[in-house]
What we know:
The complex is a heterodimer.
Chain A: H1 3-16, H2 21-33, E1 56-63, E2 66-73, H3 76-89, H4 94-99, H5 104-107, H6 116-140
Antiparallel strand pairs in A: 1-2
Chain B: H1 3-7, E1 16-17, E2 20-21, E3 23-24, H2 35-47, H3 58-77, E4 86-89, H4 92-103, E5 112-116, H5 125-134, E6 137-141, H6 151-157, E7 162-168, H7 180-189, E8 193-197, H8 209-212, E9 216-220, E10 231-235, H9 237-242, E11 253-256, E12 261-263, H10 277-293, H11 295-314, E13 319-322, E14 331-336, H12 341-350, E15 353-354, E16 356-358, H13 363-369, E17 374-378, H14 385-402
Amino acid sequence: MNKINAVQEEIVEEFSLFDDWMQRYEYMIELGKSLPLIDPEYKTEENIIKGCQSKVWIHADLEGDKLVFTADSDAIITKGIIAVLIRVFSNQHPDAILGADTSFIDKIGLKEHLSPTRANGLVSMIKQLKMYAIAFKTQLN
Amino acid sequence: MDVTKIRKDFPVLNRKVNGRPLIYFDNAATSQTPTQVINTIVDYYENYNANIHRGVHALSQEATNAYEGARQKIQHHFNAAQPYEVIFTSGTTHSINIVSNGYGELLNQGDELIVSALEHHSNIVPWQMLCEKTGALLKVIPMNEDGVLLMDAYDDLLSERTKLVFVNHVSNALGTINPIEEIINKAHEVGAEVLIDGAQASPHIKADLQSINVDYYVTSAHKICGPTGIGILYGKENSLKRLPPFQGGGEMIAEVTFEKTTYAGLPHKFEAGTPNIAGGIAFGAALDYLNSIGMEKIAEYEQELLIYGTAALKKIPGLKVYGEALNKTAVISFNVQGIHPYDIGSILDKLGIAVRTGHHCAQPIMDFYRIPGTVRASFSFYNTFEEIDTMVKAVEKAVQMLK
């Protein structure tokens, strides 16, 4: 099993420990607090991800042949969602990021409980992570 | 007013959201639809669905009578002088675009238009597009911290260069009721026309169009218990005659040859194509429904909800209400210090409470307060004091989780 799948399974397992949405949200809010924060210099207007109700910034650096993500948001639940995504996608090779399946989002009850507007934000975030992977993949080649 | 009885008219209020009874506080975005209105739509499609105005057969005539009957109901509700001054549109945005498009041929470079700081994007963007096309200038009436327009500044903006003033009757983001009669009278003194966006006012205030002497008044049915996709452009006969048509097509013509087409008279000049017939008829039914309860009673009850809700929410530490005009509708826009409105909205949704979060399509207002958005709870006559209590507890719960 590749590493991305392993992290995803780990997260699915963690979330399955909770009985109700409130515990899941509280856990996500906690995760948001541990989000590796983006350097303020990258928190520019141009870096704001479109499609989110709250402001979301994501930045990527190449360390060796792996991408390391940092991010931030002005909304705390959104921060939790990014923290989950980054835990999956950070420290991975661009190819692994591009090939990653994101069905774990459904399994942790994130997408099914988010309204379409908010789910769009989630889709935009994943798209942005994959865009970085494409950009750095070219650089690695 | 018997709210328990009224609630039985709204089937959607029985449903659960996330396992809890729905509390619908997003009425400023769209109102819920009573059975009486839903039945009108069903009746139309089951019994007399036909194209209108030209058919000689019975169904077409029945449909035409019902549709034109609805136009007259709207005329009487808003006290327009003539039924043909009521143009059916797809909604407020469409109505505004008919006027802004027509004005493209009536304006010259250097002419001025006046808008207010309290507008919805739909009453800003069409005019900006018009200004780009014509070289006209857009001036803005500023507001104060309470969300009230500064009328002295309005006086200073008016001049003989002013051609059109467009202001909403009620602000969607803050609920402020604007002094539209003063705005209209002062614009008329310098020879300008006035368009009032009544989308947010119609659920609470019955505008008397002849008495306020407005040139154009626009609104949507879905804010007042009607269906989506139907609204009106009211215009004074002379104003509408002067305004060039917006869309070409069937219905809006008198005669067509390949050399020249002559346009039909009012209201058909602005009603190209087959209209939303069921929607128009249901718009009339929605007004019947509201009038059977009484607009004054509705407004009075909603004011009680507003006062009760505002007082209860303000007890939450760090909660700030945006928009504290003395005259406002039952809209409470708020934030809790240090918490993003989106976070509060997400938790409330999990608790079955529908509110709106974000900039409410009124970014200039959010920029004025330097906030990303607000949580907006907007009440209707089918809401209850108990629902407000539940919301207040839910906000407290959210604050506890998010702090």
